[in-house]
Amino acid sequence: MTLTQQERPGLDETVGQCAPAKPQPRPDGQDRYTISEVAAHTGLSAHTLRWYERIGLMPHVDRSHTGQRRYTNRDLEWLAFVNKLRLTGMAVADMVRYADLVRQGDHTVAERGALLRATRESVLGRIAELQGTLAVLDYKIDLYADALRAPERP
Predict the structure, then answer these.
(1) CA 59 – CA 106 distance, rounded (Å)
(2) Is residue 16 pLDDT above 60, yes or no?
(3) Is the torsion defined by CA of 30, 95, 88, 110 positive or negative?
(4) N or C: which terminal CB in the chain sees fewer CB atoms within 10 Å?
């Protein structure tokens, strides 16, 4: 069973604005991937992909007539976005909440935006911390470089 865009409300605008990490292996229409192919493409384990589906982070994943999962390019794009959210340090519960809001449709845009803005603020705070840490490292590296250039004292 393949879901139409109307049956997956709200997903399209989020996925469409997050370019996939790498080009899709197959063109749309020929994009039916097994879980092992998706695992190889995304770097996620099959266990993680099944867990994402179980907790509601993955939108509906189609199944073949034998029950085997069949992922699409849209699913790969969604996973690329989820991976970006993971890199932000967003809590899994917040990612699941975001996915649920996306599925609910356009009336959740304000709440989705608020969730992403809060995550952005957290990322900016971490970047500032890292920049401070980098400044300390640069200072120490410069001290050692100066010590190596200084002539030996008797």
Answers:
(1) 16
(2) no
(3) positive
(4) C
User: Each residue of 83-128: pLDDT tens digit?
Assistant: 999 999 999 999 999 999 999 999 999 999 999 999 999 999 999 9
Buried b (16+ CB within 10 A) or exposed e, 36-75: eebbebbebeeeebeebeeeebbbebeeeeeeebbbbbbb
Chain Cα centroid distance, residue 50:
16
Dist. CA 69–CA 77, nearest whole Å:
16
DSSP category for residue 10: T
- The secondary structure of the chain in percent helix, strand, coil, rounded to multiples of 5, reads 65, 5, 30
- Beta-strand ranges (E) seen in the chain are 62-63, 69-70
Judge whether 102 and 42 are in contact, CB under 8 Å. Answer: no
Tell me if the pTM is above 0.85.
no
